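Schema walkthrough. Field components (list of strings):
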Amino acid sequence: MSDQFLYAIEVTMNGLMAGVLYALVALGFVLIYKASGIFNYAQGVMALFAAMTLVGIMDGQVPFSHLINAAFGTKVHHFGWHVPALAAILLTVGVMVALAWMVQRFVMRHLVNQEPIILFMATIGLAYFLEGLSDLMWGSEIKKLDVGLPQGGSLWIEDMTSGLGSDNFYGFFIDNLDIVAAIVAVLLVLALMAFSNYTKEGRALRAVADDHQAALSVGISLDFIWVLVWSVAGFVALVAGIMWGTKSGVQFSLSLIALKALPVLMLGGFTSIPGAIVGGLIIGVGEKLFEFALGPMLGGATENWFAYVLALLFLVFRPQGLFGEKIIERV
Amino acid sequence: MEDGYTTADGRKIGAVVMEMKNITLRFGGVVAIKDISFDIREGEIRAIIGPNGAGKSSMLNVISGFYVPQEGEVWFHGAPRPQLRPYQVAQQGIARTFQNIALFEGMSVLDNVMTGRLTQMKSGLFAQAFWKGKAEAEETANREVAERIIDFLEIQSIRKTPVGRLPYGLKKRVELARALAAEPKLLLLDEPMAGMNVEEKEDMSRFILDVNDEFGTTIALIEHDMGVVMDLSDRVVVMDYGKKIGDGTPEEVRSNQDVIDAYLGVSHD
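Field assembly_structure (string):
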């Protein structure tokens, strides 16, 4: 096999792995959109907040320490203990559930039966609020997140594949973290699909997304379903936050991954969980291969815009995405 | 009358299931319902009629918990009902349909009917997700009830069709199916025949009578078409401008002078 062809395969594989990470973020959007018809602008910030909280808890940071020190003239920063990763993750899940409850209690409950655009605006407000809150709670410096996931290139895959090409080919380079992310994403999607298709909560969730009034009339509590949905979205945000945070550090730019999820959603459709995955993979592979094949001719950095152009084309020719529900309107 | 009565066609009507006591409902300065009392007995078809804007739908919304009256009490099974939210009312076994149809348009007919079973499902989240033992048996049992109702209402042929694609008359029937799937103690129908042609109205009337006959379901319905109501119902409450102007069997109501005035109009001089 020619080295060029092998490189293309390697690029494809890395694209798939990157796509899985995009898909993880997109999943959070799909969940809330399916359940409440809300496009949750705050999903990216939720990932940031979750990752910040996780790091903060693991390092034993005192939340709101700047505020406390300014108010009482104290100098507290750390409790002086370290929480093991698993316990910290569980605690963070608790924080995300509490956040879901607060979003429901103080924002969503007051907006029942409002236009989607109003709910969307509310999530923009929520995004800025959460951004400020995570700064205030945990500080704004860049932090390192290490929950014990393997990192660095997989030597095993390199050794296995190094014989395929010429002497200049050293084997495929694939990051261990990406492999873990792919496995986690698959498990998460299977669990979410089982939840949405086979449980009464899943059915209730689809019902609420469709019609609030009708849902009430068959005995579904909107409050409960919304807390549930925001909790699950918070959990998915945490998973995305862990993966991205481990890869590139926990910092403000983490919240911008939400922007990368948008084209994924346009491809996959806003209402489809498998769509989010396939959309993520197509964008991941597409942008890597495009850069590999045509990048040098176009002056490079095509990864910055490729996804958006692809999404634009989809908007023109197939607005419901690959897997989205077809828009039916009786007249 | 205390323990019930027997209808003209020989059906036994039982004790009082639901009683409205001096209900008053205001929206700001507008009085939608003014000091109305009436009861609904087990097994009967009870109609609430009146001209447009009489407060019929408001009354149904009070029963189903969508509106909270400022004064008065709702008694259910012989005890005053605390103020409940609509989903809690549904969980108590009171199902309803809507005047403007509230279905889950994106879901299939079968899925819509299955949502009516939600209040009957007890097994836990994980058991259901992984489809084991009791949860599976429960799902099968619920599915059987849903299928029986779908057969009963003759909508087998559209079981898998997304509701959004159905014509109006069928949507009304699907909504009835969903309400029935909850096996309600009391079924509330808000203008089940509104906007239908004569043939559809006859079908719907037949289904309402069959449901009452077959399942013994207590039904309270709203209608402004006098003719339909008189044929269907055992007892009728007549409302006009938020007040009760008549209550009794169709014959009694028909000969009531206030009712005749409200429907035909009368000069107030």
